[in-house]
Write a structure and sequence with these properties.
Family: Belongs to the glycosyl hydrolase 10 (cellulase F) family.
Number of domains: 1
InterPro entries: GH, GH10, GH10_AS, GH10_dom
Structural class: alpha/beta
Radius of gyration: 23 Å
Shape: globular
Bound molecules: ligand 9MR
CATH superfamily: Glycosidases
GO molecular function: endo-1,4-beta-xylanase activity
Catalytic activity: Endohydrolysis of (1->4)-beta-D-xylosidic linkages in xylans
CATH topology: TIM Barrel
Strand content: 15-25%
Largest sheet: 8 strands, parallel, barrel
EC number: 3.2.1.8
Length: 372
């Protein structure tokens, strides 16, 4: 090949490379993410699932988990009955399996749950007063210490408010130890694992109602008195519809200076796909809504058999609800630049890179975020 031919080849090659580069730039912006986790991460959020340790040997289940999700919540394995079956004797085997599975794949972990009236071991159910209170504090301290540094956010207290219009606390053995049990629980969790975000988690709080307003007032009070709280979790167990003020309700909590998460989403009924899309859009419209967790993977994994409330069918196929969520994520916007809890999406974006130390500020899609 002569010199001029060589030069022409070089020029053509260069033109080709530039053209290929342009194509990939345009393709890069036009290409929608094809998994829930990637689509959420592009919007500065995580997308998680409740996971059962017993299913980690199920190939279809694990394939979907690893492909689609970048956050996990142990469905039952971190609860009091599972972790402290007899007083002072702890068993973390199943919870550790889930945490290790998640963290070795760059997924963040929601801890669920440190103090709850339900799923207590028999010995705790039999306690009351100051002995129950000290057992609760010890339980929180031991569990949060065991997982120290590994948990993105803890559901420190779960479901402590009553249903209906009273706005009262739920009556329970923990509540009967004194009204301050919630703040004592949050302080114990903060002391044991200062790096974890602390969350109050509840259901039937999907709109502005007496129960969500009572929780709102508790957050105001905690903020005023310096009781540590970083998050409010909205479980969002829904059937066929979502209250019209769902997004406004998330936003009023965010305006108090806490982040919000959708923590246990499942939607039954014929209108499922549309409602999944709507809930996803609501989260994306609230800058401080940092992620969504669905309460299981396939319909056959769901704890209430037959309700078919999830995103994958029993064979592991994507349902219309899945497409509604993915499309909503891809159409959504990134949060405005500012101070926001970026830990979960940092982990998502850096998935499998082994780079887990989050910097103080972070750039996503050209905007700069300061870590809350
Ligand atoms: O999914 C959980 C199921 O396997 C348990 O049997 C049940 C027992 O209470 O708890 C389910 O999870 C609940 C969660 O821990 C708290 N919020 C309500 C969830 C069920 O909708």
């Amino acid at each position: 090949m002569g010199h001029s031919m060589q030069r022409l080849t070089t020029v053509l090659l260069a033109v080709g490379l530039v053209f290929a580069g342009l194509v990939s730039v345009f393709a890069g912006t036009a290409d929608a993410a094809t998994t829930l986790g990637a689509a959420a991460a592009e919007k500065g959020r995580y997308f998680g699932a409740a996971v059962a340790a017993g299913k980690l040997s199920d190939n279809t289940y694990v394939t979907i988990l690893n492909r689609e999700f970048n956050s996990v919540t142990p469905e039952n394995e971190m609860k009091w009955d599972a972790t402290e079956p007899s007083r002072g004797s702890f068993n973390f085997a199943n919870a550790d399996r889930i945490v290790n599975h998640a963290r070795s794949r760059g997924m963040s972990v929601r801890g669920h749950t440190l103090a709850w009236h339900s799923q207590q071991p028999g010995w705790a159910q039999a306690l009351s007063g100051s002995s129950l209170r000290s057992a609760m504090v010890n339980h929180i301290t031991q569990v949060a210490t065991h997982f120290r540094g590994q948990i993105h956010s803890w559901d420190v207290v779960n479901e402590a408010f009553a249903d209906g219009g009273s706005g009262a606390r739920r009556d329970s053995n923990l509540q009967r130890t004194g009204n301050d049990w919630i703040e004592v629980a949050f302080r114990a969790a903060r002391a044991a694992d200062p790096g974890a975000k602390l969350c109050y988690n509840d259901y039937n709080t999907d709109g502005i109602n007496a129960k969500s307003t009572a929780i709102y007032n508790m957050v105001v009070d905690f903020k005023n008195r310096g009781v540590p709280i970083d998050y409010v979790g909205f479980q969002s167990h829904l059937t066929n519809s979502v209250p019209a003020d769902y997004q406004a309700n998330l936003q009023r909590f965010a305006n108090l200076g806490v982040d919000v998460q959708i923590t246990e989403l499942d939607i039954a009924g014929a209108n499922q796909a549309a409602v999944y899309g709507s809930v996803t859009r609501s989260c994306l419209a609230v800058a401080r809504c940092t992620g969504i967790t669905v309460w299981g993977i396939r319909d056959t994994d769901y704890w209430r058999v037959g309700q078919n409330s999830l995103l994958f069918d029993g064979a592991g196929n994507k349902k219309p609800a899945y497409t509604a969520v993915l499309d909503a994520l891809n159409a959504g916007t990134t949060p405005p630049p500012g101070v926001i809890d970026t830990t979960a999406w940092y982990a998502s974006v850096n998935r499998n890179s082994g780079n887990t130390a989050e910097p103080n500020s972070y750039t996503l899609n050209g905007a700069t975020y300061t870590v809350a």
